[in-house]
Design brief:
Elements: E1 10-19, E2 22-30, E3 33-37, E4 40-42, H1 49-61, E5 65-80, E6 85-98, E7 111-117, H2 119-124, H3 133-142
Parallel strand pairs: 1-6
Antiparallel strand pairs: 1-2, 1-4, 2-3, 2-7, 5-6
GO molecular function: hydrolase activity
Protein name: Phosphatase NudJ
Family: Belongs to the Nudix hydrolase family. NudJ subfamily.
């Protein structure tokens, strides 16, 4: 049997934010050009998924985000055309409320702007989505999916690794 490299999907979080029937998306620069995404990003070393989604939403929208529900775990695999990179994402999606935009706060590097879009508008531009998970998360939220935040457990070892002795 030939040894292969261990499968290491990228673990990400996403914020699904709805207000008055519109969803908050970001338009971001990618290797494939300007794409639309939920406010989202990678979980960093030492942070919980909930901490990560609060941070990412603030960085990408300049709005404080308060997670209220867990939407679910989403997986997608695709090839990024510009680099022919085979990538798999594991996305933990949360829904919640966003506060007002913080005046003077810059958006994260690569984020061009934020947009409020209806579900139909999000569905109509699926070819511009960063991944197929963008629309799926919005559709699940619109369908009423709501799981408790307690469904996502983060052990204290995230901030203080256990020492084996």
């Amino acid at each position: 049997m030939v040894a292969t490299e261990r499968f290491r999907p990228s673990v990400t979080v996403a914020a699904v934010i709805e207000r008055d029937g519109r969803y908050l998306l970001v338009e971001e620069e990618t290797a494939e050009g300007l794409m639309l995404n939920n406010p989202a990003g990678h979980v960093e070393l030492g942070e919980s998924p909930i901490e990560a989604v609060v941070r990412e939403a603030l960085e990408e929208t300049a709005r404080p985000f308060t997670p209220e529900h867990f939407l679910g775990v989403y997986l997608a695999r695709f090839v990024r055309p510009a680099r022919l990179e085979d990538v798999t994402y594991v996305r933990l999606a949360f829904s919640g409320a966003a506060g007002d935009e913080i005046a003077g706060r810059a958006l994260d590097a690569g984020i061009h702007r934020t947009l409020w879009m209806t579900l139909d508008e999000v569905a109509a531009c699926a070819e511009r989505h960063r991944s197929p998970l963008v629309l799926q998360c919005v559709q699940d939220h619109a369908a009423g999916r709501r799981l408790p935040l307690e469904a996502v457990f983060s052990h204290a070892s995230l901030t203080t690794p256990l020492v084996k002795g």
